[in-house]
Please model this.
Amino acid sequence: MNLKALSRWTEKELKYLLLVPTILLLLILTVYPLIFAIIASLHTINIRTGERSFVGLKNFIQIMSDNLFWNALKNTAIYSGVGVTIEFTFGLGLALLLNTRLAGRNVFRALLLTPMMLPPIVVAVIFKIMYIPDFGVLNYLLGLIGIKGMIWEASVKTALFSLIILDIWEWTPFMFLILLAGLQAIPTDPYEAAIVDGANKFQIFKFITWPLLIPAVLIALLLRLMDTLRIFDQVFIMTGGGPANATETISLYIYRHAFRFSNIGYATAMSFIMLIITVIISNVFINRLKAEEVFTL
Amino acid sequence: MNRLARNLLIALLLLGLLASVFGGGKQEKAKTSGKLVLATLNSIEGQTTKKALIEYGKLKGIKVEFVEAPYSNLFEKEVLDMSKKTGLYDIVLLDDPWFTQYAENGWLTDLGPFFKKRGESGLSDDFIPTSAAICRYPYKTGKVYAMPFFGNAQMFFYRKDLFADYGLNRAPKTWDEAYSVMKKITDAGNGIYGYVLRGQQGNPVVAQFMPVFWSFGGRMFNEDKSVVRIDTPEALTALNFFLKLKDVSPPGAESFNAQQLATYMLQGKAASTINWPAFVPTFEDPKQSKVVGKIGYSPIPAGTVKGSSEIGHWLVAIPEGAKNKDLAFDFIHWATSAKNQKDYALKMGTPPTRISVFTDPELTKMPKFKYFLVLKDAIANSTPRPRISNWNEVENTFGIYLSKAVAGEITPKEALAKSQVEVEKLMKKAGYIK
Model:
């Protein structure tokens, strides 16, 4: 083999060689755990008792009749559905408002981003103090405008709702940010043409802004949905899943089985179901994004 | 260049990578001799243990390392290390309810031979008997697998001034006596509540209920854990009284944890509570507290039988896979000595486990340690959480139904009946019920 052949080889094959570390990392960090998870979900694995036996689909069958799992799934669905819808509505409103030539809009934009910068744990701790019915600031403020204070995260009826409020406060800015970016990416000429043609503001929004904003809308919704489906920290700090299991979410329930009860097999099976649900939901959005030709795979 | 050469090159590269990964591992292992690694909590108790180890390292000229974690994280780390016998830690700080599970699985080192080497028969008689009992597996009678480091047991905290205003010039002896004062305080409508209940689902509500349960003669299991005794008349009396306590508590108690209890007491908005002694220094700190000197500390009032609080010690133990057991034992023996426990009490305010430190006049004459004698009695009269290896699961299940009862979703009778069924299932699964 001569030098020339070597250099030709390097030129042709080097790219594959350089990919080796990345592929290796991918194998170790994603493919291996995934395969391990599939295997684990078919076993009863208990770290505490050292039990490790193949049980086939028993874990999944047990999950189907596990009321606590369904309750957690229901809570998570409400949390995601209601939370993301409201965040989206607020986010869109704010983005539309601050996309106009409003005085001091840069200040507003910067201020709006602060909630997102705080660690969720800190937000949860602060909200827990604000929610104290007796001397929490929320009931105090309500009292000032003559509304009788209520019990927030401590009542079965309002607990989940109180957690959603926190999520809305913290993550509306995220929606706002993506939608604003989407709005600013829309070229100005269709607007000019529309104004020339005498379209009113509603028509402009319906026929120009909204269709062109769809990709940003899809991305914002997708990211937030995936995020809320695995909500953990706020619930862990604020309610621990209570009162009366009213705020138990899937992540919290999985965590309990995996780390508190050492029930790894069962927990993995639940994670797997969650993974499938998440993949199905995200695929709806991703297919839509492909149809919008935002990206191609 | 043919395919073979290319494949060889890739294989070589892979080998190199693997070698660097595993080679690195080996080097790490060789270095650990003469070093102590501690798994510890990020609380005051954990900080004190860390400080003790640093001091010990200086004394003996050895290297020391720490892994610090918050409460539930620490449990996860320790379980992972010990179940895989990786020997990452030489010393672990553990909460006593974790002990049964650790010892039952053979994860901890039997300390007997180490005591023998020193010519000692076992744990010193100076440790409070209830503190020593939780370091043995099986409970009270078995081998010693840990040493008690920080003594904790719940106490009844009450506002001496308010209780006196309503006609009680001493600590309440019974729950009835206490409740009648609490009711008057709440009904007076001054914005002060007679009691503040820790009602958050899970560990908090169970920890709050247990002392009430015990003081009405309840026991969760029989002696060998083969019978569950949750759905009993004693438990019903206890739970009904527990809900009465909730009625004289502030609204929102369904989600309160220890911190909210402390806040209500510090603000002078609640007249009594059951909580851990760790909050005493805060109550007596003028910067944070509006009630300095006004809070009395007493054992849990009696219900139908003598009151008993939950014990909650921090223990130090040596994992079975530890690499430096002799040195580790020397450290825990040294750290739990009377001289050192007194030193930590003075410097860090942590409670000891030795009778001689609790009764040390030099400490008890200081205002901030006036509760030591009460705490010593509370510990001596305390009851441990049931010594079962699946306590986490049982506590979680019981916690759900207690939370439902406290939230008024189901009746006390229903809560107990359902807990009974669910806990029996768990006990069967764990092999306690044959």
Summary: Chain B touches chain A through 50 residues (CB under 8 Å). DSSP finds 19 helices and ten strands in chain B. Confidence is low (pLDDT under 50) at residues 18-32 of chain B. Strands of chain B lie at 35-41, 63-69, 91-95, 136-137, 143-144, 146-150, 155-159, 272-275, 295-298, 314-317.
